[in-house]
Amino acid sequence: MKKIALIFLILILGLIAFVFHTFSSTGFFRKIEPNHSFGEIFQTVQLPGVEDMALARKDSFLILSVDDRAKRRAGEKGLHGLYWMDLTKTPFETQRIALPDDLTLFPHGISLLELGPNQYQLAVINHVEGKHSIELFLIQDGKVEYDRSLRDPLLISPNDLVLVGKDQFYYSNDHGNTSKLGVFAENYLGVAAANVGYFDGNSFRIVADKMAYPNGLVMNSSGEKLFVASSRGFLIRIFDILENGDLEQIEDIPVGTGVDNLELDKNGEIWTGAHPNLMTFSAYAAGKKEYAPSEILKISYQAGESNTESIWLDDGKTLSATSVAIPFGDYLFLGNVMDSKFLILKK
Known about the structure:
This protein is 13% helix and 49% strand. The protein is mainly beta. 40% of the residues are buried.
């Protein structure tokens, strides 16, 4: 009888430890004290689910990835596609980018690469009816032309991508499992089973694994290093980019929040939208909570020593579930997973 009681006690203590670890490692106990010191809200743009943005700094425009996930969750039709924002005049206006009639686009992560004067390649992660693809576009003098679609079994659960050359990109699979049990283990046990893939212009391959919900990616200014956000790990993983495109891990930057997309500013500093409480975010994404907190970080990287600064923090009532932050001049553009609008701050 005593042996059974002891086993039962051990199981109970193990369950308590598991629950405590899950909540603490996802930011549940963090107190959110709003910090809006960056500046005032300059403009509120009524576009839903602007989960990612891509900036053409030289030619002053933004591409917006739009998907009204809240309406889709409710079984309703909502806006989805790509939008253009001209940054040369205020107030800023958005314009829907026309797509081919036979292309259905529910965009996720996007990336923009300058190819030449007023010429860019745009890569877009697309999720349609449980199937994943990468859609490639060419932009010349402000005109967006659809190029082609890429599909591969190694697009397991693509979240974000970064173009590193024409027709060459790294991408994150935020989960390595597709079964409900496997996804649960990654989400709640923090099992590091996801990975980063690479498309070299001809074929896909996995170049980094054993990651906990890899998300946003960005390359440093010199093209020598790749930074990958680990949302579940509350860190940014840094890799050296080898000559053949393979990755070699060199260090992690702990950031204390669920980092999402990563963007590089003109000074080489990293900006990210983040989810300080992943449990609340999960409930919000499922429609069980009205708000989810938001955070914006700026990271100054130096080998072995980095500085992380919380630029903007909100309980979700101003803007829920920020996923991307892009500075441009005196402005900061804040996108999110599924709020009904996005914000533009001004210093």
